[in-house]
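User: I'm writing a tutorial on reading structure tokens. Could you give me a worked example: one chain, its sequence, then its tokens, then a sentence or two explaining what the tokens reveal?
Assistant: Sure. Here is the example chain.
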Amino acid sequence: MINQKLFTFIQFIAIVFTLFFLKTNTVYAQLLHHNHQHFTEQDTLRGSITPERAWWDLRYYHLAIEVVPEKKFIIGSNTIEYTVLEEYQVLQVDLQEPLMITKVMQEDEDLKFERNGNAFFIHLSKKQIVGETNSIVVFYEGHPKEAVKAPWDGGFTWSKDENGTDFIATSCQGLGASVWWPLKDHMYDEVDSMKISVEVPQHLMDVSNGRLIKVEKNRKKKTFHWYVDNPINNYGVNVNIGDYAHFDDSYDGKKGKLSLDYYVLKPNVEKAKVQFQQTKQMLEAFEHWFGPYPFYEDGFKLVEVPYLGMEHQSSVTYGNKFQNGYLGRDLSQTGWGLKFDFIIIHEAGHEWFANNITDKDIADMWIHESFTAYSESLFLDYFYGKEAGQEYVRGTRFNIQNDVPIIGIYDVNSEGSGDMYYKGSNMLNMIRQILDNDALWLEMMRGLNKTFYHKTVDTKEIEDYMIVKLKKNLSPIFDQYLRTNIIPTFEYRVFEDQIMYRFTNCNTDFEMELDIKINGKPQRIIVKNKWQEMPLEKDFEGLEVNPNYYISIMEIK
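And here are its predicted structure tokens:
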């Protein structure tokens, strides 16, 4: 039998080793993150490319619905056109409770289907032949989930304007578009084009994505038909209903004349005409940094809604009360955040990162949010100078929690930490500092949107592109800042004739170029997770680290 004191000592050593391993090993930290979350069959059905999804490729949707405000009820259908990639006879369509699919048809034949939670499995009678294009029509109805706190906990928002008129909108990022319409509810497969037809009471207007192609009227109702000519991610599809006024403008951009359309409640027209002038500033800055606006064919719209706002493609929703900042607040606490309307700049920035370049799995949502949060500082950079933009992005560090890794869990519809916004933007700003080549940085930003134009991507594709384009080994940085919640600490110790330095609180293979000043003299060093040394030529007067590095700093006495 083992000695009790020895056993206690072994337990102590095991605990110490585990804690050390946790702080220095990405894989273990990520596994622990996995183990603290519990996922269900429904999470897998929603978040993975199931066999019933993999065999068909989306081509076209025609979503046609009637919205009945007084009953908070919707009824309609979605025509789903697809190309057969491999022979299979069961097709998955998603629709969340309490909505119900009432009928599915293919070529005038009623199809059998079965429901497993929010996933419907449709049995096709017609033999599915590789290369053919087929379609089904899914009929549905019910009372859709009401948004609790749109857009974060979304669904249908049923509200009234100041005149007591219905003011209605949808929002569904994360929760899923299947919260209000039946579709292939996974990010990896974007539909190539889409028609959206929305029937509303006669006194109301619907504004959706793309261009308005027709309005049909009868005695009591109107149907607004919109057409989206470009691929669109599913959560980017929206319905906005209200007593809207419309005004328009145009922008002479990199691909020609871009139509700008604005829909706001009638009492807000004059305020909107002033505030929405920032749209042209946004386009000027972002076409410089990212290349042409990705959806010239569909135009650009800002649409007032009864919640804060969302990046719905070509139909960006706005609820920032016609003021600068984030509901009048500066998220950076530097003053720079009050130089622009947060919703116009941030949500429109998503037209490049989220709508043009879209993640295949919600676990990689940092691709949407990190780049778009960083676009806020690039907007300032363009109009006020580089230091203004960098001061802003550094100021947003107050919002970072470092709770869990930025990258979520794959195949279960699980996003990572909210730090994907401002920890992610600080990581990008830090990489720009390391690169120290703004011409190449600009080329890389534009290249991302050209290389992955209208595509769905994963983290590896973005990382690999940046590493090759910038000719820098950025893998240790991506692993540290995206896959752990640990911020490296730069430790240094001063002796009479030398300085010792290293990174701690990091992965074992973490290393990074670091810009410092010793006695006011700039120099760049490569810092690893082990002690290194440099000679000290004269009496030590101080060491400074460039503030664009998002790290901790500690002098050991």
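What the tokens reveal: The chain has four domains: 4-36, 50-242, 248-485, 489-555. The radius of gyration is 26 Å.
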